[in-house]
Amino acid sequence: MVADEAGSDAAIDAIAAELYAIVPADFTAARNARAAALTDRALATRVKALRKPVVAAWAVNLLAREGQLADALELSAALREAQDDLDAAELSRLGRQRRQLVAALAAQAVSLAQDAGVTVSAAAAGDVEKTINAAVMDAAAAAAVMTARLVTPLEAGAFEPDDLADAVAGSLPGAAEAAPRDDLAARRARKAAEKAAREAERDANEADRLLAAVAAKQTKTQERVDHLAERIGDLQRDLARLEAEHEEAEDQLAALDREHRDAASHAADARRGADRARRALDG
């Protein structure tokens, strides 16, 4: 129970933190009951307006409440520093590290959700990974994720800092902070580095997809090559056996030809003898 029921950001944030720890299926009933219990009507109205979180956002909230995003936020700071310095080699190394860390954290969020009895679909798991990646890539997104009050998932490069207010229940710490004043050239360089990082990520994902497709085809073709080699071996053994049988049959045929000639000659001699014997008998 929040002691201060005034319609302040602190009060609504505290209540939202309680409600967004509840599984999505029970959220609406818990929210309505919490609003009905409030004596401050302004605060009750704000509580009643809190939206039910989608499963992907709720799973990321679990991860934030468990304190598992520290490594991701440290990597986020390193990425932004590398982008500011236009350090291509460091960006490449950190990019690989980011993909591995984001995938591992997304899997952990899905596991936490399943432990709480909530099934996370493949599509929702993809949104979990996109949201964690957004937190690594963007400081404002990181601030939003760390509230553990996400309502909808995020995607890197798909929002402006002010847009995050719709994705988070209650206030958004740090979202309204002014960015450091840069000269125009520095801002353009940072924007170009961010764009290059996003494009490099898309290229890396596409390359990974193509590599997996080629590997699958390679495996399938290797299996066919092995099968055909085995079949050729069988056929070669069959051919050798048939050639031996053919040679043996030819030898048998040649012997029978000789035997036939001998039998025919003997039959002709016998027939001539029989003819002479009849003629002698008749004469």
Automatic annotation (TrEMBL):
Region (Disordered): 243-283
Biased composition (Basic and acidic residues): 256-283
Name recorded for this polypeptide: Uncharacterized protein
Organism from which the protein derives: Microbacterium terrae
Lineage: Bacteria, Bacillati, Actinomycetota, Actinomycetes, Micrococcales
